[in-house]
Design brief:
The complex is a heterodimer of chains A (about 300) and B (about 700).
Chain A: H1 3-16, E1 20-21, H2 36-39, E2 48-57, E3 73-82, H3 88-98, E4 108-112, E5 115-117, E6 122-131, E7 134-145, E8 148-149, E9 155-160, H4 161-169, E10 178-180, E11 183-184, H5 185-203, H6 206-225, H7 229-248, H8 254-281, H9 285-292
Helix pairs in contact in A: 6-7, 6-8, 7-8
Chain B: E1 6-14, H1 22-39, E2 43-50, E3 54-62, E4 68-76, H2 77-80, H3 89-98, E5 106-110, E6 113-122, H4 127-140, E7 148-149, E8 156-157, E9 161-168, E10 171-172, E11 176-177, E12 180-183, E13 185-187, E14 196-198, H5 202-211, H6 218-235, E15 239-240, H7 244-253, E16 258-263, H8 273-284, E17 287-291, E18 294-303, H9 312-336, H10 340-347, E19 351-353, E20 357-358, H11 359-377, H12 383-392, H13 400-404, H14 411-419, H15 424-431, H16 447-466, H17 480-493, H18 500-508, H19 518-539, H20 544-551, H21 558-574, H22 578-593, H23 609-630, H24 634-643, H25 645-654, H26 662-679
Parallel strand pairs in B: 9-12
Antiparallel strand pairs in B: 1-3, 1-9, 2-3, 4-6, 5-6, 7-8, 9-10, 11-12, 13-14, 15-17, 16-18, 17-18, 19-20
Classes of the chains: A alpha+beta (about 300), B alpha+beta (about 700).
């Protein structure tokens, strides 16, 4: 199976389970969790179901396009279900069936793997899902985000798209998988990987990124003071990305790291609080709607 | 209530419970419920079962709660009945308050007098009713290292609970757990037999679950794993690596105990075994296969189903293994492009500790200290090797391999140094630097390795103690207890005579900017080491009072102290130490009462026979003791000390130490002080219990 077919099948499946198909966020993020469709929507009482692809950047994972498994820029398929229905694991297993995997013929296991993001003030518990020994999905019940205890609880399902495609196609290198029939991932992305790796490790101007970090941070604070949640959150993401570049460049000492992470977290925490306040001021619109029209797919009963 | 015995079955079906918490969850559930059942007088025996998705209790020979009788003491008989023996208002009131008839009151003679007593019978309740109250309370209160909330955010346990099965004598025990009503249904294996199962009894539960690809008995799963692993390895002429802990983990990871064998390209065997084994065990929870003493190009992987007819599971695991090994080979080759030596500048960016500076600075201090330790240990001929090893010792921290396999720090440095052609003493010193890693692990192999490992730990310990970061209570974030225990183990195993406080002082002077003064820190550190030594010696089975007798003397040389403990232990078994212990205590008491200067006892000034006899025996023995102690022949020294027992005993019986003549008194004190000090070079016998 090629990458784009995988994406299309996942979207078709999760749309059929009542998910809104979101689009990738247009700010650099390290993971699909940082997309507002996850980080902000898990907050507060409103129900929410969404699925989307999120290109994710991790400068420290750069290997100049020379390592068959590691990428600076990889793609995640992210599903959030709030509240997490009691049959969420069954829904997930069904999604594998939709991809043509017969779980009776394979070994499918959920092994403990908890998740924590100090920069987002967020954590959850869950599993890595192993298919015949291969980690294909991260499955998390969000417990806290932006320092706020969550209720109801959201289930987050994150498929690693490149790895899953490699596994299904039994390819040994990410660059050999097909993006679309007849076009390999390497043909589309290999040079990018070389360039972003070289930039992250050798070229990035640390003084420039240091300055950016501080200015993004100051701008985020201005937005928060003006009660503009989403612009503030975008700028907090920019800070996080600047930190990742500086970190890959080896420009963050262990002590600096703690304080820089704390600064980003403080922004995330303020954004989270402001978001909940803003939704509340709007009367939690999705909550009212859910009360008016009970869900039809029945996935919430279990 | 019938007294017939009945069986009991309780099963919680949840989402996958972490393998790491299952052992303690099983224990906690069994212990708490057994205790609660015993308190409720339900009799019987309980056993616990579990899988990756279930926790269950099975009970047999349980009974309904028997009636409980109790006696309540009321007013004195004289106040309860009048002269005619009729109940008074007091007795009537008491009977009413206790809910019994006045006629049923009895008069009983108690130690404090004769009293009116009401005998009450509390009727027992049906076991099912009692259990229905007990279980939800206990289960909902179970604690786990990391709890989770689900649904609306209210229920809190280890993972969401899906069904609760509770039967007593085949009938459902009504209860609600986390909002889930109990019943007689459960479900089979997640993918192989997910359908609902209705159970009538314990036997039925076992049989139907087994038919539904679930083996509820942990021990059965464990032994199936062992059998399959042996059989699959034997098919390729090998045997599974010996790893009981991994098999235990496997047993907690599944409901259906399956093993698949896979192979990998033998070309990967060129990679060091340590790396392949760590990759298989730590990353994939796979059991390596060994044949003819070497690693074979096969592995055994756990899976949650028995059988893999199409080989899909084996192929998937092979693909993952190849991917992991390729990754490792990439790091092995890529790291090889930069020599350890050339990585040193990057250590300057790797912080060891805020005040103590970066890792390169630590490396410099290790090098400096290693030379000083070698001089003290008479190992200065190793200076060249030590300097080389110290220089490279932390270079592997900035390799991709260690970033990928943090557990292999040290080992990776050793492997890389060997590849770069460093001498054996040097690469082994790198390889072994974190040893002993556990109680079962050995100390670094060579002298170079031992000195480097000591220097590294003494640097860490003096630095962090100097910063006031010594461990407190259960908090030991820098693992300083383990570091100190490592120092003690190395000194004892290598029988290295080292003045440890002096070595610590040397280490401390290499730090700059420490807030705490050395004369404050070093005694704390000495006490810290002695605590570890005490722990180790007692763990070896030495009596606590022997250990105390030695550790209350000067123990700046730990290996010497350990030798003295062993000598005292041996002698204690052969000779009666009680007189020596008593005599030492008396010496100690008298010397404390009247402190004085050290002086040489003068036999010419002695007046009593017993005094002269003791002085004669002791002064003769003293020279021999000096010689024996200097040569560390502690057993011989101890038997001479013990032989002085009778003379000492006679002395204390016949002689008044506190003589009126101050000169006579001072001379007697001098004799005792000299003996006490001489004995205390081996042990403070007053600590020894009879």
């Amino acid at each position: 199976m090629d990458l784009q077919t995988l994406i299309l099948k996942l979207s078709a499946y999760w749309a059929s389970k009542g998910c809104l198909i979101e689009q990738p966020w247009d700010v650099e993020v390290g993971a699909g969790t940082m997309h507002p469709a996850t980080f902000l929507r898990v907050l507060g009482p409103e129900p929410w179901r969404a699925a989307y692809v999120q290109p994710s950047r991790r400068p420290a994972d750069g290997r100049y396009g020379a390592n068959p498994f590691r990428l600076v820029k990889h793609q995640q398929y992210q599903v959030v279900l709030k509240p997490a229905p009691m049959d969420v694991q069954d829904l997930y297993v069904e999604s594998l069936v939709a991809l043509g995997i017969d779980p009776k013929e394979h070994d499918l296991r959920f092994e403990e793997d908890n998740w924590e993001s100090p920069t987002l003030g967020a954590w959850g518990v869950g599993w890595q899902v192993l298919l015949d020994g291969m980690e294909i999905t991260q499955f998390t019940y969000f417990q806290q985000a932006g320092g706020i205890d969550l209720a109801p609880i959201t289930a987050e399902i994150t498929y690693g798209l490149e790895r899953l495609t490699m596994f299904l196609a039994k390819q040994r290198s990410v660059y050999d998988i097909e993006w679309a029939p007849g076009v390999t991932y390497g043909e589309v992305r290999k040079q990018d990987e070389y360039e972003v790796s070289k930039y992250g490790f050798e070229v990035a101007d640390t003084a420039f990124w240091q300055t950016l970090f501080e200015r993004f941070e100051a701008e985020a604070v201005r937005c928060l003071d003006a009660e503009l949640v989403l612009p503030a959150y975008d700028l907090a993401l920019k800070c996080s990305h600047a930190f990742n570049i500086l970190d890959a460049r080896g420009a963050v000492s262990a002590t600096d790291r703690v304080s820089v992470i704390r600064r980003v977290r403080e922004l995330a925490v303020r954004c989270a609080k402001a978001y909940v306040a803003s939704r509340e001021a709007q009367g939690f619109p999705l909550l009212r709607k859910a009360a008016a029209q009970p869900s039809e797919d029945g996935a919430g009963s279990g | 209530m019938g007294q017939e015995v009945a069986e009991f079955l309780f099963e919680i079906l949840a989402e996958e419970i972490p393998a790491g918490v299952l052992p303690s969850a099983r224990e906690e559930l069994l212990a708490r419920v057994s205790a609660a059942f015993a308190e409720a007088r339900l009799g019987g025996r309980l056993a616990v079962h579990s899988t990756s998705r279930r926790l269950a209790l099975v009970g047999e020979e349980l009974v309904d709660q028997p009636d409980a009788e109790s006696e309540i003491t009321g007013p004195p008989a004289s106040a309860g009945y009048d002269a005619d023996g009729k109940p008074t208002k007091a007795a009537i009131g008491f009977a009413k308050a206790q809910g019994v008839a006045v006629e049923d009151l009895r008069v009983v003679s108690l130690p404090k007098g004769t009293y009116v007593v009401a005998r009450k019978v509390t009727p027992g309740r049906p076991a099912a009713e009692v259990i229905g109250e007990i279980l939800p309370r206990l289960v909902e209160k179970m604690t786990f290292p990391r709890m989770m909330r689900w649904g609306d955010g209210t229920p809190e346990w280890i993972r969401p609970v899906h069904s609760v099965l509770a039967l007593f004598d085949g009938l459902v025990i009504p209860m609600t757990l986390f909002g889930v009503e109990s019943g007689r249904t459960t479900f089979g294996h997640r993918t192989l037999a997910p359908a609902r199962i209705v159970t009538m009894s314990v036997l039925d539960w076992f049989q139907k679950l087994r038919a539904a690809h679930v083996e509820p008995d942990l021990a059965v799963r464990r032994s199936r794993f062992e059998e399959q692993a042996r059989a699959l390895a034997a098919e390729v002429g090998g045997e599974p690596a010996d790893d009981a802990a991994l098999l235990d983990t496997w047993a907690h990871l599944v409901e259906s105990p399956g093993v698949v064998r896979g192979s990998f390209d033998p070309a990967f065997l060129e990679l060091p075994e340590e790396i392949l084994v760590t990759s298989m065990r730590e990353h994939q929870k796979m059991l390596p296969v060994r044949a003819n003493g070497a690693l074979a190009a096969h592995f055994l992987a756990v899976c949650d189903q028995v059988g893999d007819p199409q080989g899909l599971i084996a192929r998937g695991n092979e693909w993952v293994t190849a991917a992991r090994f390729s990754d490792a080979r990439f790091f092995w080759d890529d790291d090889g492009k930069t020599k350890l030596e050339d990585r040193l500048p990057r250590l300057a960016k790797l912080q060891f500790q805020e005040t103590l500076g970066d890792t390169l600075k630590k490396t410099d201090r290790i090098q400096d200290l290693a030379g000083k330790l070698a001089a003290r240990l008479g190992l200065s001929h190793l200076d060249g090797m030590l300097a080389r090893a110290a220089r490279l010792v932390k270079a592997d921290l900035v390799t991709d391999m260690v970033r990928e396999f943090p557990d292999l720090q040290g080992v990776v440095g050793g492997l890389y140094a060997r590849r770069e052609g460093e001498p054996e003493e040097v690469w082994q010193a790198l390889y072994d630097q974190y040893r002993p890693a556990s109680a079962d692990d050995g100390v670094p192999r060579g002298d170079v390795g031992g000195v480097i490992a000591l220097a590294d730990r003494l640097d860490t310990l003096t630095g962090l103690f100097g910063l006031g970061l010594a461990p407190t209570g259960s908090k030991d974030p820098y693992a300083l207890r383990r570091a100190a225990l490592g120092v003690v183990r190395i000194l004892l195993d290598k029988k290295w005579r080292l003045d440890l406080p002096a070595a610590c002082a040397a280490a401390a002077t290499l730090h700059v900017g420490l807030p705490r003064a050395n004369d404050e820190v070093l005694p704390e550190l000495s006490a810290f080491f002695l605590e570890r030594l005490r722990f180790l010696l007692e763990k070896k089975g030495h009596a606590f009072d022997t250990v105390a007798a030695v550790l209350t003397t000067d123990c700046s040389d730990l290996a010497d102290a350990a030798e003295r403990v062993e000598a005292v232990e041996v002698l204690r078994k052969e000779q009666d130490f009680a007189p020596l212990a008593t005599a030492f205590k008396r010496m100690q008491n008298i010397l404390e009462e009247a402190p004085g200067e050290n002086a040489e006892p003068d036999p010419a000034k002695m007046t009593d026979d017993a005094e002269k006899a003791l002085a004669l025996d002791y002064l003769q023995a003293r020279g021999m003791l000096d010689d024996l102690i200097a040569r560390r022949r502690y057993r011989d020294a101890l038997s001479i000390m013990a032989s002085l027992g009778p003379a000492l005993d006679r002395f204390f019986t016949e002689v008044l130490v506190m003589a009126e003549d101050p000169e006579v008194k001072a001379n007697r004190m001098a004799l005792l002080r000299s003996m006490r000090d001489q004995f205390a070079r081996v042990a403070r016998f007053s600590e020894i219990r009879a």
